[in-house]
Amino acid sequence: MPNKEDIIKIYNQTISFEELFNKKIDYSLKEFSYFDHKIVLVTGGGGSIGSILVQRLLENKCKKVIIIDHSEYAIFKIKLKFKKEIENNRLHLFLGDIRNKKLLEKIFSLFPIQIIYHAAAYKHIDILENNVDESISVNVNATINLLEIATNNCFTEQFIFISTDKAVNPINIMGISKRISELYLLKKILGDTNPNHIKIKIIRFGNVFNSSGSVFTIFKYQIENQLPITITNRNMKRFFISKYQASKGLIEIASPANYSGIFIINMGNSFNIDALLNTFLQKLDLNFIPKIVYLDSIPKFEKFEEELYFHFEKIDDYISDYKKIDLNNYDIINIETETTNLMQLIKK
Questions:
Q1: CATH ID of 121-208+241-269+307-347, from 3.40.50.1100, 3.40.50.2000, 3.40.50.300, 3.40.50.720
Q2: Per the database record, which ranges form the Polysaccharide biosynthesis protein CapD-like domain (predicted)?
Q3: Which end of the chain is more exposed for a tag (fewer CB within 10 A), N or C?
Q4: Every domain of the chain and the residues it spans
């Protein structure tokens, strides 16, 4: 039975990720012993990925899950959904901004946090294009602050950073900000500035079906309001993954057997957006025919097709659900050079 997080509802009709993408997902629950009695922090824990990740963590034997999120409404929804876990002292919620170093220090003083999932970020591409300073402040500076606190904390074992396919050969502010964070983390991995030698893991994946920034969320809004459905280009392709698949990959990559590095959740092939939309509409029993508008132009901050790794990145290990990148082609000098070049791009 499909996870309800992987279903879109329109006019009392439902379409699942499995139906739309013709993929069969194993939704059986699995417990992973490496979470036994662990205290886990999830930044952005009220968001699309964060909240489903929190659910997976609570299904395992984590001692406690700590959430920090800047959205009061997101915290409110989490509080309703996991009331019992809060009462059992397994879930703790903090309303706040991850740029607030004093708040982060307070959380780390209250709990001996062992695993960090850093999911908090600004993700809407077109919005970030007009808010460069804010995107760098949240996506880069807050990541640096959090990692500094983590690496100086004697309890922390893992720092897991959620990145994006848009960080590969980035052409927009969102992708650039995520890539700069990746480079900062890689410098920590390859350098000698990690006093407690915590494992630092960078996780890349593509678009998440039915997330707050998904194209299907836009399609849903346009259909329900009987607006024209807009597609940038009829040949544009994107990678897609379900919320369940994303959370499952994040859980499995936390295995202590995985050392520091870059991991890519297996996304399969990329999908044509126009073909997906037509399949989507065919599965809906609408009493009107939606108008589809093709803009037939690609904004300078969007790619025709996304990528999951750079041409110089070689696959080290290939597991069924994720791949690991060999870091031999990275060194401190080229990391610093790429960081400088990206910072110059932002200033233009």
A1: 3.40.50.720
A2: 40-287
A3: C
A4: 121-208+241-269+307-347
**pLDDT by position in tens, the chain (length 348):** 556 778 898 888 899 999 999 888 888 777 888 999 999 999 999 998 999 999 999 998 899 999 999 999 999 999 999 999 999 999 999 999 999 999 999 999 999 999 999 999 999 898 999 999 999 999 999 999 999 999 999 999 999 999 999 999 999 999 999 999 999 999 999 987 777 789 999 999 999 998 877 888 899 999 999 999 999 888 899 999 999 999 999 999 999 999 999 999 988 889 999 999 999 999 888 888 899 999 877 778 888 899 999 999 988 866 668 899 999 999 999 999 999 999 988 876
Instruction: Give the angle 293-296-302 at the CA atoms, nearest 5°.
Output: 110
Q: Which two tokens stand for residue 306?
A: 């996304």
